[in-house]
Amino acid sequence: MRDSGHLPELEEAMALAEALRPALHRLYRQLRRENDEPGISPLQALLLVAILQQPGIGVAELARLEKLRGPTISGHIKAMEREGLVTRSAPDPEDRRRSGLIATDKGRALIQGIKQRRTDWLAFELAKLSPEARAAIRAAIGPLGDIGQ
Predict the structure, then answer these.
(1) pLDDT, tens digit, 9 for 90 and up, residues 64-80
(2) Structural contact between residues 58 and 98, judged by C-beta atoms closer than 8 angstroms
């Protein structure tokens, strides 16, 4: 049996979700457009960020983390190696078949450039808003971060 005391909160949350989802989708799409970097796909940028966050991660671990098939990841990693964005560490002494992935200086610089372009675009757009609108967005950062956990 439903607790009727929570129905108004759920209805309000559903309405908020319906309004928020398209706004977040448009924002995400705009931010992705700031990734126009030749030689790297959005998926490869995502993988490179994961490698930067977990230096030495293996291909299988990366596939599990990103919920992708190993062969899919392997192909992208090989392309990223050819572009000089990642390199493999020395084989694991306990498992000679496993070597970790390390972002190169070129890979780190590429991701830093993408992040900077996205931040610049977002700051420019935020500057167009009223101080009240920016304050509302600032206040929403914490709760939005909580949802994403």
Answers:
(1) 999 999 888 999 999 99
(2) yes
Identify which of 103, 124, 125, 129 has the alpha carbon closest to the alpha carbon of residue 46: 103
How many residues appear in the chain?
149
Residue-wise over 36-71: b if at least 16 C-beta within 10 A, else e? eeeebeeebbebbebbbeeeebbbebbbeeeeeeee
Return the structure tokens found at 81.
């190696």
Predicted TM-score of the model (pTM): 0.76
Question: Token pair for residue 91?
Answer: 């084989």
Residue whose structure tokens are 């757009």: 125
Cα Dmax for the chain: 60
Tokens representing residue 36 in the block: 């126009």
